[in-house]
Amino acid sequence: MGDVSTRSILVVDDEANIRQLLTDYLHRDGFDVEQAVSGEQALEALARRVPDLIILDVRLPGIDGSRPSGASGRRPTCTC
Fold first, then answer.
1. Cβ-count burial of 80 within 10 angstroms (0-12 exposed, 13-18 middle, 19+ buried)?
2. Range of 29's domain?
3. What distance in Å separates the CA atoms of residue 80 and residue 67, rounded to the nearest whole number?
4. Residue 3's pLDDT is what?
5. What is the chain's pLDDT, residue by residue, as a tens digit (80 residues)?
6. Where residue 21 sits, what CATH number does that domain have?
7. How many distinct structural domains can be found in the chain?
8. Looking at the DSSP assignment, which residues form a beta bridge with residue 8?
9. Is 1 part of a structural domain of the chain?
10. Domain-embedded: residue 50
């Protein structure tokens, strides 16, 4: 894989084990990863910096996963 050290990813999931597993794998591959446990935290993270990629649980409590993806001001390439 090429140099990804400047690539940032926001991982949003309310399940700590899934969030940590994704973060561990992405860190291992050189990505800069930020975590959020809720839609509200994801919006706060997006206000600070728009990542290159958002991995988002769409079934979050509170603000569901469909709202933060559009809040970045950029259209997502893919939502799954």
1. exposed
2. 8-71
3. 13
4. 58
5. 555 547 999 999 999 999 999 999 999 999 999 999 998 899 999 999 999 999 999 888 887 666 545 555 555 455 44
6. 3.40.50.2300
7. 1
8. 32
9. no
10. yes
Backbone dihedral angles phi then psi of residue 11, each to the nearest 5 degrees: -105, 120
Whole-number pLDDT of residue 22: 97
Q: How far apart are CA 19 and CA 11, in angstroms?
A: 6
pLDDT, position 62: 80
The predicted model scores a pTM of: 0.76
Q: Are 61 and 14 in contact (CB under 8 A)?
A: yes
DSSP state at residue 1: -
- How is 4-66 classified by DSSP, letter by letter? -TT-EEEEE-S-HHHHHHHHHHHHHTT-EEEEESSHHHHHHHHHH---SEEEE-SS-SSS-TH
In a domain, 61, yes or no: yes
**Is 64 a member of any domain?**
yes
